[in-house]
Amino acid sequence: MPDSSRTGEKVFRGIAVSAGVAHGKVFLLGRLASSIPDYEVSEDGVHEQVNRLERALVETRLQIADVQRHVSEAMGAEDASIFDAHLLVLEDQTLINEVVRAIQQKRLNSEAAFHQVSERYAAALGAVDDEYLRERASDIRDVTSRVIHNLQGKGDLLHLKQFKDPCILISHELSPCTTAQLDRKMVLGFATETGGRTSHTAILARSLHIPAVVGLKDLSQHLETGHHVVVDGYNGLVILNPTDQTLFEYGQLVERHSSLDVKLQGLRDKPAVTLDGVKVVLSANIDQPEDGPSIDSCGAEGVGLYRTEYLFINRDALPTEEEQYEAYRSVAEAAKPNALIIRTLDIGGDKFPSHIQNPIESNPFLGWRGIRLCLQEQGMFRSQLRAILRAGVVGNIKIMYPMISCLQELEEANKILAECQAELRSKSIPYASEIEVGIMIEVPSAVAIADSLAKRVKFFSIGTNDLIQYTLAVDRMNERVAHLYQATHPALIRAIHQTVEAAHRHGIWVGVCGEMAGDRDVTLLLLGLGVDELSATPSVVPEIKALIRRSKMKEAKALATFALACESDVEILARSRDLGRRSAPHLFESNQSGAG
Ligand code: PEP
Ligand code: MG
User: Are 276 and 320 found together in one domain?
Assistant: First the structure.
């Protein structure tokens, strides 16, 4: 731990989310309010605000027309005509003139002006007796959210393009969409004031190998662009004005990690098997087709989770079936002969492509997300399923549905899958007719009905990131409640146990693809609970393999027996960590010293 009393050095503590050390100059990204920004603009700024509004209106119009075209192609012109009402809102001169007047006369920024005026219109329409007019209120709100989204999104990306030199990005928050666009060469590391270890932003940082710390509360108030900092992604620290001694100590830490990496590299082609001979399937989680080569280089046995969302975000239009087919085919080739588990779209929550109407929801993670969204946006779902089925001819692909919470969702998704197969068959297009279907277990209701689900699928993969947040009612992205987000909470341990028992009763395998699978503090606990497969981000696969190879399943089982009877998350974690440390001490020592 750097000594804060050293001259000029200041240490800020947050949550370590992506390993590594970065040092360089700060680039402070403007605070991106999660609510609608509301501020007064100068007289000179009025013109720019009106211009921003006009650009956002044009962009929104193009997006809606594009969505309309897709819906029309997939579902027919009649369904697509609902978007006419949205386009009419954008062309309503009375509304737009009033927004412009609010900018000019009240000196409001365009987001606030648009929101205030449109909300007044929507509230007035929402209060009338006529059903048709009441529906127009929801059209106005839908369009407003998209215009505001475009106004905000633009600001964000504009800033990102300003990097001239490599820097450390400091921000109030970073969305997964923005994080996915970060250029590794320009962003050496990042730190945010909000966020948690299993937020999608954190997961992406790990997959991009960008050292990162989140949950640093009011960090940006203490830093300015140009300040010199170290981001310590091992210990969750940001150090302002590091002294030479601190930099030297970090140099040593980095060296120790590099030599450990070299040693772990030697295990690449070895199996993940315990000392008492139990083989574990250790696979990789990937986010983009470009991650294909990392499957082999990290020594993983295929892909346990391919998050396909990133193919859909940060672009102007939906990917075509052909484009998806190419992406899935290329990853299947890279994973061959091992399995590639493609998770169907899990958008919603914190990930929304710009071409899908982003609804304003009070609880987005409980809302229009994952399989729920796909079952309603069937054109998009069907094109993804067709692409997966076609790519299944080339490699060993399995399909996995996210966010299943009841039998009906599974049955409906499977019905659509069967229809896609029939469609391909009727057109004589080659496809995988025997493709295996599994589901993510990440909603507590799915744990409770795991027996019924297990009868109908070929595998389960436990999504602990969501299962923890939904079981414990703790937002995975909220640093204020991060201390309650406990993977070793007895409720979680029992939920995992219940899921594994149900799966094995019905003769199917069960994996874990949430971040718990790559957390060496709990790896042995998961194995003891009977999990058959672990799927983790490629950067941690080597150390998880090393730990498995130095452990005994007999001891892991004893640990699980203890955990199932224990009432304290702290004690379960301590025991689990202790067994890990005793099994492979070298893996647990490398973060110490310079960084504490
Ligand atoms: C999970 O919830 O554990 C999971 C793997 O899915 P995601 O992190 O993408 O929600
Ligand atoms: Mg999930």
Answer: yes
